[in-house]
Amino acid sequence: MSRVKRGTMKSKHRRYILAQTKGYRFGRKSKERVAKEAIKHAGSYAFRHRKAKKREYRNLWTLRINAAAREAGFSYSKLIGAMKKANIAIDRKVLAELAKNHPETFTRFAEQLAK
After folding, report:
1. Could you give the CA distance from residue 67 to residue 74 in angstroms, rounded to a whole number?
2. Cα 7 to the chain's mean position, in Å?
3. CA–CA separation, 24 vs 21, rounded Å?
């Protein structure tokens, strides 16, 4: 079996790894072994937090809708229940947008459901 010299490929791979850890602190940005470990952790955190972000936004929307609904004399659950009963399919993201940026429209919407 012939010998393979990996000088250029090895240094190219090392540069690639260290480029990914640009901006990290201490040895994580300059030492290959520690940098590899940091990249692995960063990737797993990024994956996990992409999932968590969706939950956090839904909670935020619920909170905003509830606050606006209580000003209009409803509770969150009563408002959502009335919407389901009336077959209105507006998602929470849009409702939260209405509650935050157009409170008078949201109040009129809630009053329409009450009737």
Report:
1. 9
2. 41
3. 6
